[in-house]
Design a protein that fits this description.
Cyt_P450_CS; oxidoreductase; heme; iron; binds 2-acetamido-2-deoxy-beta-D-glucopyranose; Cytochrome p450; metal-binding; alpha+beta; 596 residues; binds protoporphyrin IX containing FE
Length: 596
Amino acid sequence: MESGTALAPLQEFVYIARLEARSSQPSHQSYSLPEPSDLSISYCVESMEIVLVLCVAAIAVALALLPKLFKRSPFRHIRGPPSPSWLYGHMIMTSREKDVGDLHFQYMQEYGSAWRMKECFNKDTLWLVDPKAIQYVLQTSGYHYSRTVVGRHIARQITGDGILYVEGDDHARVRKIMNPAFSAAQLRSFLPLFRRSARRLTIKWKDSLRTASAPADHVLNVNSWFTRTTLDVIGEAAYDFRCGALEEEDNEVVDAYKNMFRDSVMYPSGATLVFRSLWPYIPERLIRLTGYLPTREARRFRRTLSVVNKISNRLIKEKTQTCLDRKDENLRDIMSILVKANHSENPKTRMKDKEMISQMATFFLAGHETTASMLTWMTWELAKDQDYQEKMRQEIAAVRAKVSERGDDDFTVADLDSMTFVIAGLKEALRLHPIVYMMVRSAERDDAIPLSRPIRDEKGNVISEIPVSKGTSINLSLCGYNRLPEVWGADAQVWNPYRWMDTNREKHINVGVYGNLLTFSGGVKACIGWRFTVIELQAIVVELLENFEVAIPDDKPDIQRVPGGLMIPMIRGKPELGSQMPLKVTAVVRPEKAEV
Ligand code: HEM
Ligand SMILES: *[C@@H]1O[C@H](CO)[C@@H](O)[C@H](O)[C@H]1NC(C)=O
Ligand SMILES: *[C@@H]1O[C@H](CO)[C@@H](O)[C@H](O)[C@H]1NC(C)=O
């Protein structure tokens, strides 16, 4: 009987939970990187009691749900890697990949563009990199594939009931209210602001070089500088808020976000994974309570959110009157739009107080960490490819000369868009280093997902459509799609910005919003800030390359793409240092200016 076979895994679970409780240390966490199979290593700081209470609750719910969990999935004959554990499936393995994407790339090669994996309790989950399938899930049938309960509730702990949490009509309403803040015209008006922040970063780096003992070998953790820059940008662009992240060494907002993902969702314990896998079967109201539990992630998120919400509340108090006074000017910055929505009479365009605060937290988070990581990975690639870096610099200098000739002080968006090498470099960095490297969707109904390339199942049948049942979770590998040889060519695994200049490139199925990449996702819930990001990246990269050269430091640190909710850059084996990207930074000597 099924209950008999279920007993062994349950014992395994209790045993592991006990091991974890014993090895957890309240005051400091151990970060040594585990082998994927090493289940006993824990990153939990919860006390033993909490783990045990959770275990008991989890076991009770699991027993009640056994029949549901044993439902056979319609795609059980799709090929996929064997599961290492009945209880954990591949969950531990995938959340502890050595470098983000390694497993994705391996399975793509082995199984093609779709394969089957296991979640906790042996539940089937479908992994997809196929362009047509992804287009179907995100666009064609976008509102029938929702964000998962787990994903939404983790987002809720970080931001509140914001756009990353709400679904269906609520999502459509918020998206419609926010859209005007991200129109092309509105975003163009931000360019001077992006340029000012970029210049402040230049001044900081120049100061740092001036006081360095050996300016020729000056190494900076560029990641932390980019985080500060992008925080200043989103604060000012969205809320007219001077965050002071670049100016102040000890900044409240910087501190609130610092290493948040490492300290919360990176390397979840087995108990956490099992606990989360039960959320879809628990009433919404009860799941909300998880945010109040003293677990590692909930505690860390509460700390960040309390700082951010305090600031948002203060900003709303300060700015509401001004926004209302200037209502007739039809301002379209995020703050004005939020205030207007709160005061709207029409329920279709209205936003409640609490929702406003949640959107603000969403933009604070979504608007800075991602862009900063992108700058980080891009400068890393340029540090490795000095030739290309120099090509970009020359192109920028040529456009700069044109701008001066015209009598202008600075680049326009059209000038930035004319820089072919810069844009190709940017797109290539976005392709190889998607910060959100994977997304999960949950099927809202029984359905069949079409494939662009048929696959063979375990029985040798050719399959061009994969049947899924309601509630199935579907893992979209954004990093896998971004490296599909069918779409990007045989050299899809390596840095080659020239691929973007090939005018004969084949047209492929349309999936993503920028360069047909999946980095900003696609369809009805694609990144609302993608155009904002692209202009911001252009503004900052251009400023940096005009002023600095970046290179790999002499000790050649081994950079790891750590899976931690987002993809986090770290020095291999040194997670205690947090996000790291040490690069050698030297000043560019421009001949005309050097004489002055
Ligand atoms: C390199 C930078 C960025 C990357 C790689 C990125 C990536 C993404 C991805 C993959 C999603 C979809 C997430 C999901 O469906 O679960 C998303 C959603 C979102 N992003 Fe971005 N993003 C970036 C920058 C920004 C910026 C600068 C902003 C705001 C100014 C922003 C605001 C949002 C919002 C509000 C959503 C939710 C959209 C919705 O649910 O309709 N992002 N982003
Ligand atoms: C599916 O993706 C989510 C989000 O990245 C991840 O937590 C989960 O482990 C994946 N599922 C499997 C079976 O690996
Ligand atoms: C939002 O709207 C509600 C209801 O009209 C009002 O009570 C509240 O003060 C508004 N909040 C802000 C920050 O303006």
